[in-house]
Design brief:
By secondary structure, this protein is of the alpha+beta class. It is about 35% helix and about 15% strand. The strands form 2 sheets. Strands 4-5-3-7-6 form a 5-stranded antiparallel beta sheet. Strands 1-2-8 form a 3-stranded antiparallel beta sheet.
């Protein structure tokens, strides 16, 4: 709570340093993540339930019964560097630390189990393995909280920007997912297909431009599209496929897309 009060978005981590699901259904990342459960259940959380997107500074969320299930099992605290406006250069071994001491300007430094975290002010794209033993953790990533560290924090140096730019952004391969379009339940109120096309294009843009809270953005966008177009029969599988493709391009799994769509449909009584 003290970290959250200091504007550091936090989340619970397990003994394996991976984020924990914050509700009973998602206890083993059953929704939209790498599940260890044979029969994953749907996620009905009112907020992102796991991973970097779940990190928050909201005290009522952190102290909720929902999150209490995860905090009781947590073995470490994680945080979203990008949400805190910082970049972590994760140095995983002695050679990486030695490289940083010659290639990067001094900044706030935190000791880790095998190396050091060098923390800079400012955000960049997160990229793993920019060189041997070096990961860049900032936007859409998480890091372990290991203390405030020592030293004065410097701005993200040009050398880190260069390392990130050398690595092309990874775009996950999208999977074709077929979800039946909602059946018509009345006369279509839309006078022109332009209205629907504009709505789908805006929904795609909303998902694509999400900087954080991607899980929640996808769900709420699906909810808005179904609310506006789901009952008149004009929404087709092609339109749904476009929304799913936009979500998968942001890193969502095909299963999470289906779950989010189903949950949105259920919430609207469809």
């Amino acid at each position: 709570m003290a970290l959250a009060d200091g504007r550091l978005p936090v989340l619970p981590l397990g003994a394996d340093k991976r984020p924990l699901g914050n509700c009973r259904d998602c206890a083993d990342l059953a929704c939209g993540g790498r599940s260890n459960m044979k029969t994953p259940g749907p996620c009905v959380c009112p907020w992102p339930c796991h991973g970097w997107a779940a990190a928050t500074t909201n005290p009522s969320v952190l102290a909720s019964r929902q999150w209490g299930l995860a905090w009781r099992r947590a073995r470490a605290i994680g945080y979203h560097p990008g949400g805190a406006g910082v970049t972590v250069v994760d140095l995983d071994n002695a050679d990486a630390v030695e490289w940083a001491r010659t290639a990067l300007p001094p900044t706030t430094t935190v000791e880790t189990t095998r190396g050091e975290h060098w923390i800079y002010s400012g955000t960049v794209r997160s990229v793993n393995k920019v060189r041997e033993g070096v990961d860049i953790k900032s936007l859409m990533s998480y890091a372990r909280w290991l203390g405030p560290g020592t030293g004065t924090m410097a701005d993200v140096p040009a050398a880190v920007h260069a390392l990130v730019e050398e690595k092309p952004a990874a775009r996950p391969a999208t999977r074709a997912v077929t979800v039946p379009a909602p059946a018509s339940s009345g006369q279509c109120p839309h006078r022109s297909p332009v209205y629907l096309e504009r709505g789908i294009a805006m929904a795609e843009q909303r998902i694509t431009s999400a900087e954080s809270g991607v899980h929640n953005t996808v769900y709420r966008t699906f909810l808005a599209v179904l609310s506006a177009h789901g009952r008149c029969g004009c929404l087709t599988e092609t339109h749904i496929g476009r929304l799913f493709a936009a979500a998968q391009a942001k890193g969502e799994s095909a299963r999470h897309c289906i779950t989010a769509w189903t949950n949105a449909s259920t919430a609207l009584g469809m």
